[in-house]
Design goal:
The protein is α+β, with helices and mostly antiparallel strands and 285 residues long. The chain folds into two domains: 156 residues, Transposase IS200-like (Alpha-Beta Plaits), CATH 3.30.70; 115 residues, no CATH class. Helices cover 34% and strands 19% of the residues. It is built from eight helices and nine strands. The strands form two sheets. A five-stranded antiparallel sheet has the order 8-7-6-5-9. Strand 6 and strand 7 form a beta hairpin. Helix 1 packs antiparallel against helix 2 and helix 6 packs across helix 7.
């Protein structure tokens, strides 16, 4: 006999469902996009909160809380049925896409909530599909990193006050933060979140290399600073190569616009990243 499911009103559930015979349905982008579209349609149709998710090649993970008068079984049945219909329609098949039952476990306390959040985030990394959670685009970590909130909910649950789900640091910001500053920011995300949000908005305005019409009046700046030097970044390629003005407080006359390596900057433990106003005079040589 099947074990009766445990349902606790007002709780989050860790839900996992595998494909039939572990077929790699979601190995390619088409399969993953189909699943993401089905999840979004389910959000529009049913009343539930989705704190996190991850679509893996053979299974999905959800951290989900059905709201009042909404059945988890009905939600999951609809998700599995619709995704299977869409998959079979695209491939001209009549196969059973999903295994018979989905796994569900009620989250009992804040510590378990945090553990499941991290477990779902790390799934793609543990499987060797991504180097960091935010790199896997079929995941809640990616949606939070790009600040796209239509599918993922920012959760502050009254019954779980210690497990308030703060939005993740956007990947592009965490990539720019020096390691020591990044570790501190992750540990105390709430205290620094306003600065992180500001930086995320700021970065979107900084042109890529070769896109700036003039280096004298770029739209915004990022400032890396240490005890003696300031680096005012006005162009970068999103990875390691950046251009900006380097100012030395001991030798101000030697300030110049030059190429800067992000990895080299980040290796200096005294370097910090700061938000900066848009009206900073720049020396161009």
């Amino acid at each position: 006999m099947r074990k009766k499911r445990e349902f606790i009103a007002g709780s989050f559930y860790h839900v996992t469902s595998r494909t039939n015979d572990k077929i790699r349905v979601f190995e390619n982008k088409l399969g993953r996009k189909l699943m993401l579209k089905t999840l979004q349609d389910a959000k529009d149709r049913f009343h539930f909160q989705l704190a996190n998710f991850c679509v893996m090649p053979t299974h999905i993970h959800l951290l989900i809380k059905p709201m009042e008068e909404t059945s988890l079984s009905v939600i999951m049945q609809w998700i599995k049925t619709q995704s299977a219909k869409r998959w079979n329609s695209i491939h001209g098949a009549i196969d059973h896409m999903w295994g018979h039952r989905f796994f569900s476990r009620a989250i009992k306390d804040p510590q378990e909530f945090d553990f499941v959040m991290d477990y779902i985030d790390q799934n793609a990394v543990a499987a060797g599909l991504a180097k960091s959670p935010a790199e896997w685009k079929a995941s809640g970590a990616y949606y939070k990193a790009i600040n796209f909130q239509t599918l993922i909910d920012s959760i502050s649950d009254k019954k779980q006050p210690d497990s308030m789900l703060l939005p993740a640091i956007p990947y592009i910001v965490s990539n720019l933060l020096p390691p020591a500053q990044s570790a501190l920011t992750i540990k105390y995300t709430g205290a620094y979140f306003e600065d992180i949000e500001y930086l995320f908005r700021l970065i979107q305005k900084i042109p890529g290399l070769g896109e700036s019409l003039t280096v004298q009046k770029p739209p915004v700046y990022l400032r890396y600073y240490s005890g003696f030097e300031d680096y005012l970044i006005s162009e970068f390629d999103g990875e390691d190569t950046m251009w900006g003005e380097v100012r030395n407080s001991l030798f101000p006359s030697e300030s110049k616009y030059q190429k800067i390596s992000l990895s080299r900057l980040k290796s200096n433990q005294q370097i910090k990243l700061s938000k900066i106003s848009e009206n900073v005079p720049m020396c161009v040589q």
